[in-house]
Amino acid sequence: MRTQLDTLVTGALQHGSAVPAFTCYDFTTALAVVAAAEESGRGAILLVAPKTAATPNGLRLITALRGLADAAGVPIAVQLDHATDPQVIADAVSAGADSVLVDGSSLPYEDNIALVQGVRAALAAQGRAGVVIEAELGGLAGDEDRAFGTDAAGSTEAGEPAGLTDSAQVEDFVARTGAQLLAVAVGNVHGKYKGEPRLRWDVLQDIAVRTRIPLVLHGASGIPAEELVKAAAMNVGKVNFNTELRTGVLAVLEEQATAHRADGENLQALLGHWDASARTFAATALATLSR
Ligand code: 13P
Known about the structure:
Layout: H1 5-14, E1 19-23, H2 27-40, E2 44-48, H3 50-53, H4 56-71, E3 76-83, H5 86-95, E4 99-102, H6 109-125, E5 132-137, E6 149-150, H7 170-177, E7 181-184, E8 192-193, H8 201-208, E9 215-217, H9 225-228, E10 236-241, H10 243-262, H11 267-289
Parallel strand pairs: 1-2, 1-10, 2-3, 3-4, 4-5, 5-7, 6-8, 7-9, 9-10
Helix pairs in contact: 2-4, 2-11, 10-11
The structure holds 1,3-dihydroxyacetonephosphate (13P).
1,3-dihydroxyacetonephosphate binds near residues 23 and 191.
């Protein structure tokens, strides 16, 4: 069943769990994620990248994901990820996304707040006031759709992370944006980590005591499970995965493609391997984050 993102995440946190969110560029991956969620009896979040949502086919994918969420046996939310363009947000919501990460994290502080406020007002004017808004404070290095080795400062030389969330801004930011979830930068990066991930749990703790809304950890690929299990205790109720899911799918396609071409161009069976890879990854993430 489709569910409100904030309801799903808050409910999980009450039980000491976090909810994994998975970027779905395609329906095969989404089917695998929902199957894994159903097998585990837990909810999950289907993320749509803004580049996907910016195309007509991407909007059709969102509508299909909404149908998948509606029919699922566990709570599933469909979220537009990292959106900055009001038109893409409006189109994605019309297509079926019921939550949005309004990402003004690359903007100056006041502009970030103004972006979130503007999107909220525009959604209300479109009769979509129920859309759940996640906002992001602090810059996350790395590319969201392509993985290269990055440290938290976004440079090739490991150093003190540059874009950490300033915990002193958290109360003001949450109050003025009205965000229902807050994505934070605590040494996490999108894509591959250059060297060992160095999450700043001290900064996360400082943020967690300043707001009651659930926190969101992006860039979870590459963070060891023994670190991720600590998330919910710091009020991190949503954990985003993309790169590792892609890594697994691409590896299995590479490994299996030749044999399946030889087997009568057997795309159907190859898709079965895609499904198995994504399903196993989602099941592991669900188990890691669940209490
Ligand atoms: P990774 O690609 O690093 O897993 O990050 C995913 C993400 O944060 C999507 O919003």
